[in-house]
Each structure stands twice: as structure tokens, then as C-alpha cells.
Amino acid sequence: MSVKAGGRLGKYELGAEIARGSTGVVYTAHDPLIRRPVAIKVALSSAVRERAGRERYRRLFFNEAHTAGRLQHPNILRIFDAGIDDGTCYIVMELVPGGTTLRRYCRGERLPVETVARVLFDCARALDHAHRIGVIHRDIKPSNVLITPDLTIKIADFSIAHLLQADLTDTLPTGFIGSPRYMAPEQIQDDEVSAQTDIYALGILAYELLAARHPFAADSFSRLVHAIVHETPPPLDSVCFGLPSALYETVARAMEKDVRLRYRSALDMAADLAAAFGTLGSAQTSLPIDRRFRLLREIDFYAEFSDAELWEIARAALWEEYPAGVSVIREGDIESAFHVLVTGSVDVIKAGQTIRRLGPGACLGEMGWIRQARRTAAVRTVEPVQLVKMSEALVERLTRDCQLRLYRTLLRTLAERLTHTTDLVISQ
Questions:
Q1: Any idea what DSSP says for residue 171?
Q2: Neighbours of 395 (CB within 10 A)
Q3: What averages of pLDDT result for each successive group of 10 residues across the chain (428 residues)?
Q4: pLDDT confidence of residue 168
Q5: DSSP letter assigned to residue 363
Q6: Best CA proximity match to 157, nearest among 137, 142, 175
Q7: Catalytic residue (choose from 128, 139, 198, 272)
Q8: What sign for the dihedral angle of Cα 278, 283, 286, 291?
Q9: Paired residues of 123 in beta bridges
Q10: Element (H, E) at 192
Q11: Helix (H, G, I), strand (E, B), or coil: what is residue 234?
Q12: What pairs with residue 358 in β-bridges?
């Protein structure tokens, strides 16, 4: 089937070509049913000629729709539809007006340091969302991150993303795929990948955005592999001067070759960025710091905290706002953080059944955080809510007294929850 600007593909009316790669072309398009502009990624029929290769490529192509379609996050490019029209594969996605990729800022034009921190923070939060659902991107690089004129970030191209759930792994393509320059040591050696693999790639991207150069100078694939696995790159502070020391440390930790030394979660990386750049942690809410303090003082969870400890929480915690009817926690998610509900109410849902409604002061997800296990229940908002989110890295940065107060409060919360559960069992 011949596909070109001005033609049709399925129900979609194709506009101008806006991007082209070795395996696909992206067009602007119009959805006549919903009456909205979209982007359509069309697979090139000439990309693979052998039959076996074509089947593998088709699975790879639609893997993007399968994985990214599960993700709903403001910093992940949305997938609306996918299909085949007369043998031509296509994916319909969100159109980002005026967007360009971060490649523009890795070699030539530079972004201000505060903007780079914002980009990295948003990317880390988006990756944390994907990782909690069990999706690993595996190809984080400048050309897969879009940035709009108002500095909104969109992570794109989940075509080689990996699904951690065992019942989905049979749909995945295998073999050496991805962009070697951004691969972690474990990925380029074809070992097991994890959320930390994406964090390493984000560290390489951070290095490039700040230093305008790749950390490894290699003129062949074999030398690149050797450098990634064995060599230590020039420290960022030796090629890019005058940055906050915490930013140097964040990038270095993200790029650790040893996964045991690398960030355990993208949320931990986001928390360190928020600590280094004070405006990032409160970016999810427009509330000023004094208003956040007063809201925390009004809820039972923080009743025993001193003013000094509460100011520490108000400044350090990641603040989030959600509308009614959305999931804050998904059953089966993996996340090294817990939430405290500040305003509004939520339902706790187990196996599709609402088992409890909670209001301000409720602690959410603390059992999964303590056990480092998958969430055993979902949490869905009943009305607009505000929450504070505490990651493991964030808790570790609190003062000793504040940490002890937090742990005591969590123990009290768990005891009260156990008592409530026991009472329910006895009453039945």
C-alpha cells in the first residue's frame, strides 16, 4: 500500500511528514471521528525483506502500542490506536505541537542548568510511572525525548520496551536491539535488564545535556562496549564547571556501572534532583510552602511532629495533585515510596472490590514500601486530592530526629490498621 501525505490510512487523513527514520515515517493526521489532530507512525514496508524478519519487525512495531498504551502520564507520549490497513502497520499517537527532540541540546544549543534539572526530573518521574507498572523502556536517548516550546517533556518510542510480567514476556522480541551509546553495562552485555537500566541511560543523557559531549569517546562498536563495561568516564565536574555539587553526584550515581551503587528507582533520582533544586519537588502543586505546612499540621498523621520536623517534611516531600477517578496506586505496582493523603478521599480496591474509603491523614502504600514488594491493593481517587510522596532516598535525607518520628508514626499506623482488620474479622 502506498502511503503519502494527503492520503488516508484507515479512518485517518494524513497530513505532512514530520519525521523519518530507518524503519518508519511519522505524519501529522486528523481523526475525523473524534475531530482531533494526531500523529501517525507508519512502518516502512521496505525495512525488512525476509519473511521471518518481517514478523519480528511487526511484533517490535506493535510492542510500542501494547506497552505505551498501558501508560498514562503527562510526560509519556500517549498512544490512541494501532492497526493494519492493506498490510501497512501504523500507530496513532499524541501530536506534540512545536516539539523537537533533545538531540538539539546535546551537541549544539544549550539549555540552562535549571531547565536541564527540570527535564531530568520529569523524565525520572515518567520512568518511575512506567517501572511501577512493569514497563522498562530500554532505549532512553535524546531522540526519544520530545521537548515543547513551553518545556514540557514527552518520552516516546516504547517499541523495544520490556514488560516484566511473566505472562507477557512471550510477546517480546529478543536479540541485541537498542542504541549502544546509551546502554548500561548489563544491557550491552545482553544480561538481564531492569528499571536501573533506564536510569543509567538517563544518566548518560544528563551528562550530554550538561557537558555537550558523550562521556565515552569511542570510534568503533568494540571500543564503545569496552568503555561502557570497563572504563570510567571523565567526571562531569572536569568537563562542565560551576554546577551544584548535588547535581554532579546525582548524574554520577545514575551512571554507576555497578547496579548495586546505582539508584534503585527513578523516583529516588527525582527526589535527589528535587533536593538540589528546591522548586522541583513542589512542581506538582501550586501551593506555597507555608500553605503546605499548614495543611500538614491539620492532619492526624503528622500530629506528633514538631514544627521544625514538619517544615522539613513540607520542603522535602514530593507533592502531587490528582483529579477524581484516577489511580494513585495500582494493584501489582512496584514502588519504593509511600503516600500521605493531605486533602480529599480515596477508595482502596482489592481484586476489583472497594474494601475501604480513606480521608485526609491516611497513609497509602506503606506496606509495599516496607516490604519492597508489589502493591496488594489499588487506590483510586473519589474526588480531587493532594498527597505527599515519600521515597526511600528522600527519607534517608531527613534528619535523624525526623526519621525516627516518621518511623514511629508508620508503626502506629500499621498497628491501627491491624486492629481495624482484626475487628472486622471478629465481627463477621
A1: G
A2: 20
A3: 78 88 82 90 67 67 73 87 85 87 84 93 92 88 91 84 45 57 93 93 96 90 93 92 92 96 91 78 65 92 94 86 85 81 94 90 86 82 92 84 93 82 70
A4: 33
A5: E
A6: 137
A7: 139
A8: negative
A9: none
A10: none
A11: coil
A12: 346
Beta-bridged to residue 114, according to DSSP, are none
Region class of 183: left (phi > 0), else alpha (psi between -120 and 50), else beta: beta
Euclidean distance between CA atoms 189 and 186, whole angstroms:
5
Write out the H or E segment, with its range, that includes residue 115: helix 113-133
d(CA 394, CA 419): 29
pLDDT digits (tens, 9 = 90+) for 228-256: 999 999 999 999 888 999 999 999 999 99
- Whether 139 is catalytic is yes
- What are 285's three cell numbers? 502543586
222 φ, ψ to 5°? Answer: -65, -40
Confirm if 413 and 390 have CB atoms less than 8 A apart: no
Class of domain 289-427 as given by CATH: mainly beta
Residue 23 has phi, psi (to 5 degrees) of: -125, -5
CA pair distance 414, 377, nearest whole angstrom: 15
For residue 284, give the C-alpha cell.
Answer: 506538582
Domain 8-93, CATH: 3.30.200.20
| Residues counted in the chain | 428
pLDDT of residue 278: 67
Q: Which pTM value belongs to this model?
A: 0.74
Q: Which is nearest to 385 in space by CA: 336, 302, 325, 312?
A: 325
Q: What is the DSSP letter of 86?
A: T
CATH 2.60.120.10 range(s) for the chain read 289-427
3-state secondary structure of 409: helix
Domain with CATH 1.10.510.10 in the chain: 100-276
pLDDT of residue 253: 96
Q: What is the CATH number of domain 100-276?
A: 1.10.510.10
CATH code 3.30.200.20 region(s) in the chain: 8-93
> Each residue of 152-172: pLDDT tens digit?
999 988 776 665 543 333 333
At 50 the pLDDT is 56
Question: What is the distance between the alpha carbons of residues 412 and 420, in angstroms, rounded to a whole number?
Answer: 12
